[in-house]
């Protein structure tokens, strides 16, 4: 499996660039070639932002939504905003270099750099081999407290809970804790009794003909895959709603999913030891729509 690495010499957000300038700003390097110094903020402090896109048969999903979220995260961290034309060109270059058939993940990264100059930027692409059995078999989850109330994003924006930052140590620790408890994944909860999101995915609940996701205004990362699925589901006659979700609603739901750009829609089969109904037909439909 060949992984691709593309260095990006950042162009200011508001600067128009010709195709020649865009091409000159992108450089492929070998996957084992060092691209960071020990003093880069990414290595020293996890100070940066990223996005991960799914791709299938030479086409990346949700490019504009991911670039918008990358820009939002950069603004939250007071980083220079990305030039969307440049990052579109980077994604296109990676897609051109990938096999034309099959799935892949594309990751976009911006760090604060070394403090002597601008940010450090790169993009990678990794072909995905094999299937995702959890799309069919589902996952067991446990609820884990995030340690703060659901409105922390508004009350304490410096906590960056609505930004997709490189500082993923807490997210990975939550997944390890879930595994220690005999589960596959976790759902973060607030101290005032609400379900928030999973460490690497967004939460969807089915209640009859209504599909619910936790409201994003309270420091939850806006879900790009969830937004795509809402558009699909509304076209199929479902009512799609953003609102606060009480923790107890998880175990009462008619179906529950964790959704993300690479794993796509994964059904939840159990929450804190309580079995959850699974809608395998709708799950297959959702994943087929995302891969179409």
Automatic annotation (TrEMBL):
Family matches, as InterPro entries: Aminotrans_IV, Aminotransferase-like, BCAT-like_C, BCAT-like_N, Class-IV_PLP-Dep_Aminotrnsfr
Family recorded in the similarity comment: Belongs to the class-IV pyridoxal-phosphate-dependent aminotransferase family.
Name of the protein this chain belongs to: Aminodeoxychorismate lyase
Keywords associated with the record: Lyase
GO molecular function term, any single one: lyase activity
GO CC terms in record: cytosol
GO biological process terms held by the UniProt record: carboxylic acid biosynthetic process
């Amino acid at each position: 499996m060949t992984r691709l690495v593309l260095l990006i010499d950042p162009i200011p957000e508001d600067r128009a660039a010709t195709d020649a300038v865009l091409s000159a700003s992108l450089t492929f390097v070998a996957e084992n070639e060092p691209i960071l110094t020990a003093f880069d903020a990414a290595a020293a402090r996890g100070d940066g932002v990223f996005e991960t896109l799914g791709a299938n048969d030479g086409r990346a999903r949700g490019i504009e939504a991911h670039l918008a979220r990358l820009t939002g995260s950069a603004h939250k961290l007071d980083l220079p905003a990305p030039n969307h034309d440049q990052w579109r060109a980077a994604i296109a270059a990676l897609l051109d270099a990938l096999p034309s058939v099959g799935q892949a993940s594309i990751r976009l990264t911006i760090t604060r750099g070394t403090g002597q100059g601008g940010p450090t930027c790169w993009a990678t692409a990794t072909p995905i081999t094999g299937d995702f059995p959890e799309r069919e078999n589902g996952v067991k989850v446990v609820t884990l407290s995030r340690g703060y109330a659901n409105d922390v994003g508004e009350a304490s924006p410096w906590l960056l809970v609505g930004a997709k930052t490189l500082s993923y140590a807490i997210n990975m620790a939550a997944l390890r804790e879930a595994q220690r408890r005999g589960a596959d994944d976790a759902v973060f909860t607030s101290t005032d009794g609400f379900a928030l999101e999973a460490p690497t995915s967004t939460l969807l609940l089915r209640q009859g003909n209504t599909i619910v996701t936790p409201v994003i205004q309270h420091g939850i990362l806006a879900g790009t895959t969830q937004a795509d699925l809402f558009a699909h589901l509304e076209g199929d006659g479902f009512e799609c709603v953003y609102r606060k979700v009480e923790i107890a609603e998880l175990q009462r739901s008619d179906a529950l999913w964790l959704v993300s750009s690479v794993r796509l829609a994964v059904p939840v089969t159990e929450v804190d030891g309580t079995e959850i109904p699974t809608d395998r037909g709708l799950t297959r439909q959702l994943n087929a729509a995302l891969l179409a």
